Amino acid sequence: xxxxxxxxxxxxxxxxxxxxxxxxxxxxxxxxxxxxxxxxxxxxxxxxxxxxxxxxxxxxxxxxxxxxxxxxxxxxxxxxxxxxxxxxxxxxxxxxxxxxxxxxxxxxxxxxxxxxxxxxxxxxxxxxxxxxxxxxxxxxxxxxxxxxxxxxxxxxxxxxxxxxxxxxxxxxxxxxxxxxxxxxxxxxxxxxxxxxxxxxxxxxxxxxxxxxxxxxxxxxxxxxxxxxxxxxxxxxxxxxxxxxxxxxxxxxxxxxxxxxxxxxxxxxxxxxxxxxxxxxxxxxxxxxxxxxxxxxxxxxxxxxxxxxxxxxxxxxxxxxxxxxxxxxxxxxxxxxxxxxxxxxxxxxxxxxxxxxxxx
Length: 359
Ligand code: UD1
Ligand code: UDP
Fold this sequence. Notes:
The chain is of the alpha/beta class and about 350 residues long. It is built from 16 helices and 13 strands.
């Protein structure tokens, strides 16, 4: 039996193809949800849309802890308790959140094998809590499922032995492939929001280093408010909380529509039809590249350098003038969509389950 641990929006989406494959192949599995994300539109909506089973075990951490150590500690304690009773052969975690670190730590300390899906990503920026999580998780893992050659190279450089490293592609390709057509058939978001394909920018910004920092978030939103082009901003709860605290949600121009977080089918539809993505999200840098939508990333580094190498993504930082300049250039240039996808063939989930010997 295997155990899958998840806790946040991107983990639910990127684990969904593995969960669905376990169901299809009748592989016994148990699901632990840490509760790091808990609002319906950050959590339950994805279980429903992606037809995932409800978690067998749920921790209620999100509402109780907000500090890094407190949140991670509560998760380690809860996950260990569950794993001691469950004793799975392998625990799978995905990505770089505190839920991932907690799952990997709890399992490795009680000698349960850990598989890290999306291993080996490095921004080389230790200011990001995610970078610390990535490094620690990789070093306690028994299976490192690296999406690309580059991510495998990163962990080899850190001395991880070759037997643990597997290049599988990223499960986000599996998820996009499985859901893109369903989104085309089911989503009516363009109609509901009266949007025309190719005539709006889709924005997301939620990274702690951008939105928790008043001057950086102000600088980003100052640029956004000055862009004379329709922008849709499904705002992450962290960003909303901080924007309200810093008083940044006054005087929103008509071009900028700030809405609640959106379900996956609608969000995929918005991405596919956007003229441009503006984001600091990790997963959206990948999805934009896979879907052939140009992306400008509101950061100065990325753990997804492949998106930049194939010409799908550019790092533009957080300074107002630079954002305005880069957005203007991108809107004036021809919409380029001929990027090659560096994240695999959409069979990452199958490879992962084969490598751990259950499929
Ligand atoms: C976390 C991850 C980040 C990932 C993001 C995905 C870490 C360190 N960060 O950041 O890598 O990109 O998830 O979206 O693990 N909140 C709600 N409802 C929710 C979830 C959060 O209101 O369902 C609010 C709460 O005020 C909470 C704050 O957002 O305190 C931050 O949530 P948290 O899960 O700690 O971090 P994220 O910013 O979501
Ligand atoms: N996403 C979504 N609705 C939204 C915003 C994002 O479904 O309103 C999806 C998006 O398609 C991607 C994932 O959430 O698959 C990215 O999550 P997020 O940006 O929160 O986290 P990160 O990837 O930065 O860790």
